[in-house]
Amino acid sequence: MKTETDLNNGNVNMARRSFLRYAGAGVAGIGLLSAAACHKDHNVTPTAGVTDVGSGDVGVLNFAYALEQLEAAFYLQVIATPYASMPSTELTLLTEIRDHEVCHREFFKAALGTSAIMGLTPDFSAINFSSRASVLGAAKAFEDLGVTAYDGIAYYIQNPAYLGIAGSIVSVEARHASLIGNLITAGNFTSSDQVSTSTGLNISNAPSAVLAGANVYLKTKVSATSFS
Question: What is the pLDDT of residue 77?
């Protein structure tokens, strides 16, 4: 069975190949992302024991990077230690989600370069990875949180290229959320706590609310003081 290190190495090239597709392809896209990666923000006051994502577009990318690190770590664990009697179809589907999340994580890491926040340490002690109900319940929480996170942070994006990237990734996260919902309850691809029945729009969460949920599963706590 592959270790997380093996998976990281195996997927980093896939992430880099996907880099131009996410950026819209072309030299201009590379230039925009490289500029963000080289920019460091020094205006955020650090809090002891907490990693802040920063501000501006780099802060937005770091915010997304933190969430993708968490999701990737979760699915790596799910596939490394499958829950009891996991059907082959579910193993295939969850493996595909794992690969997507690792790709997302590596994309943001490459885009941010030296501006990327340090690797975060997850805390999955509240999740019983041998239980299907516990794993899928956590997966639903992560995917739903991810979709509302991208929708909530989009208002702060200044560079149109990043808005396009966020739109591409959140559409994948929404597909994940629908799949997990259907695995939990057949035919239930969404619910009223995610999509407003009155507007037909996905519900969004402010970065502070998103991180309150994410930090439950992180030993290294994350803040987004510039986006509160």
Answer: 97
